[in-house]
Amino acid sequence: MAPMTTERPLSSAAAQYPHIRSFVHRRSHITPSQQDAADRLLPIWGIPYQAQLLNLDAAFNRHAATILEIGFGMGETTAKIAQSRPNENFLGVEVFNAGVGSLLKRIDEQQIQNIRIIQHDAVEVLRDMIAPDTLDGVHIYFPDPWPKKRHHKRRLIQPPFIALLASRLKPGAYLHCATDWEHYAEQMLEVLSGEPTLQNTAKAYAPRPDYRPLTKFENRGLKLGHGVWDLIFKRK
């Protein structure tokens, strides 16, 4: 089997893309079943973070289009999309234990074969483990909006991060973001439109594509009249 990582110095990449930390470590409740899933299954379906390029074919034991999902939460959407698109690989990146355990439970119970998980900071994963022109798509669904103005600098969707992310997309690959915070949607649209290597697939916001399922939380919000904004851009 080919090695899952490839030795390569990445100090120049680290210098080129300044670090954005869009999360804070805080105590989060993890259930006994989630902890059990993490303990048993992360060694099987997880990929340890390393400052080396990841060999995606070796990680998934096949050659296929690879979609990166950043911040998959409890994994409901990731699992549904992966099941509906079995011919593609899904690489989920999440920092929080409860979410990782929850998705691992879904993988185990539903016998999903095309998901791998990296429990680490997405910026460092992109910068250090994903080669340029590699990804066929990226999903960023409902990232933390950091609604207070003094916290806006913690938002993930900012020009340096989008420049890094766009460089990891193949030409023609897509970036799909979704948020239920209108102000953040406006910021996303401005930042994505300002990245010269990306092109909007819509005039502004895109209709929700069929492959992105509605979550229970989103359905509840829509019934209360809350908006949801999808943005789908492609690498030129």
SSE layout and pairings?
Layout: E1 5-6, H1 11-16, H2 32-45, E2 53-54, H3 56-60, E3 66-70, H4 76-84, E4 89-93, H5 97-110, E5 115-118, H6 122-129, E6 135-141, H7 159-168, E7 169-179, H8 182-194, E8 198-200, H9 216-223, E9 229-235
Parallel strand pairs: 3-4, 3-6, 4-5, 6-7
Antiparallel strand pairs: 1-2, 7-9, 8-9
Helix pairs in contact: 2-5
Strand content: 15-25%
- Structural Rg: 17 Å
Helix and strand string, N-terminal first? Answer: EHHEHEHEHEHEHEHEHE
Largest pleated sheet: 7 strands, mixed
Q: From the helix content, strand content and strand pairing, which structural class follows?
A: alpha/beta
Keywords: Methyltransferase, S-adenosyl-L-methionine, Transferase, tRNA processing
Binding site for S-adenosyl-L-methionine: 69, 94, 121, 144
Family: Belongs to the class I-like SAM-binding methyltransferase superfamily. TrmB family.
InterPro entries: SAM-dependent_MTases_sf, tRNA_(Gua-N-7)_MeTrfase_Trmb, tRNA_methyltr_TrmB_bact
Structure description:
- The chain is an alpha/beta fold and about 240 residues long.
- The chain has one domain: Vaccinia Virus protein VP39 (Rossmann fold, 3-Layer(aba) Sandwich).
- Helices cover about 35% and strands about 20% of the residues.
- The protein contains nine helices and nine strands.
- The chain has helices spanning about 10-15, 30-45, 55-60, 75-85, 95-110, 120-130, 160-170, 180-195, 215-225, and strands spanning about 5, 55, 65-70, 90-95, 115-120, 135-140, 170-180, 200, 230-235.
- The strands form two sheets. A seven-stranded mixed β-sheet has the order 5-4-3-6-7-9-8, sandwiched between helices. A two-stranded antiparallel sheet has the order 1-2.
- Strand 3, helix 4 and strand 4 (about 90-95) form a beta-alpha-beta unit.
- Helix 2 crosses helix 5 (about 95-110).
